Amino acid sequence: MKTVVITGASTGIGRSAAEYLARQGWRVFAGVRKQADADALLENVVGDLRPIILDVARQEQIDAAVETVSAALGDACLDGLVNNAGIANMGPLALQPLDEFKAHFDVNVFGLLAATQAFVPLLGGDTNRTGKPGRIINITSVGGRIASPFLGAYVATKHAVEAMTDTLRRELIVYGIDAISIGPGSVKTPIWDKAEDKNESGPYDNTVWASSLEKFSEVMLNGGRDGLEPKEIAETIETALTDPSPKARYAPVPNKLTNFTIPTRLPKRWLDKVFQSRFDLRKSN
User: I need a surface site. Which of 4, 31, 217, 278 has the fewest CB within 10 A?
Assistant: First the structure.
């Protein structure tokens, strides 16, 4: 039985991946932050799905998770670590509170790296373990390649994770451990609803960005409600975990030509104008 650890499995991509891989015959350790989320995962579960309390911003919970997974594996290698846990809050970088900006890095970057470092020995860094070395799958975003307005904190972390994934892949070759990025476009997940709830009080309502931020928020929320089904990302995750010759990066993006391929090839000043027009970002008089 193949074994995988998935962080951020309470909702969205993480939960869908945990449920999907369990149905496909994987033993899945699904990291959640609250017992209520663990209980919800076990409702109508199919397959070997094991929730574990795992907040990637808390080292003691990471260490406890490693002990739990190690005990289940015996002397075998862990087949996969899917780093999915993440947060996103909207706001203009010129005004977004620094503590809020740092919180994105605490979870999306430092938490991801802490989990990765802790699980590397189980993935094959401990050469006494038997079996084929495992793979690290980092869930990034279109935002890991395209920096949009009002998501500066989020896209900064995703750019960082893209770079970290490439570095990990090039370093961990000594153990045979692969590292792969999956950068989805809009997906039907609650992450943007959470961002909307965070900004319900309208902290930027009296700023020059108020109307632009409202338009941007509407686009993001609609994209989250009308985007890809999380199961499509789960299927991509399984491909990245099992393909004999996996890509270094997968980009499951709706309307990929217009939403990813063209924007990533446009000169940056041209893309600036696209954002300016779409969200009415103009110099005030």
Answer: 278
Q: Beta strands of the chain (E only): which ranges?
A: 3-6, 27-32, 48-53, 80-83, 135-139, 178-182, 249-250
DSSP-derived letter for residue 75 is T
Residues 31, 65: contact at Cβ < 8 Å? yes
Residue 283 included in any domain: no
Residues 6+ apart with CB under 8 A from 39: 51
CATH code, domain carrying 263: 3.40.50.720
Distance CA(252)–CA(23), nearest Å, equals 22
Task: State how many domains the chain has.
Answer: 1
Whether pTM exceeds 0.85: yes
Please report the pLDDT score of residue 108 as a whole number: 98
Is-catalytic flag, 154?
yes
Are the CB atoms for 184 and 224 separated by under 8 Å? no
Which one of 154, 175, 204, 250 is the catalytic residue?
Answer: 154
> Within 13 Å of residue 268, how many CA atoms lie on the same side as its CB?
4
Residue 198 lies in a domain: yes
285: in domain: no
Q: How far is CA 90 from the centre of its chain?
A: 17
For 57, the token pair is 């911003």
Cβ atoms of 130 and 75 within 8 Å: the answer is yes
**Average pLDDT of 94-106?**
97
Q: Which of 51-60, 67-76, 224-233 has the lowest average pLDDT? A: 224-233
8 A C-beta contact, residue 51 and residue 222: no
Q: Is the dihedral of CA 103, 105, 106, 109 positive or negative?
A: positive
From CA 173, how far away is CA 151, in angstroms rounded? Answer: 33
Q: Give residue 72's pLDDT.
A: 98
Question: Both tokens of residue 220?
Answer: 């993001």
Residue 228 in any domain: the answer is yes
Return the number of other C-beta atoms located less than 10 Å from residue 264's C-beta: 12
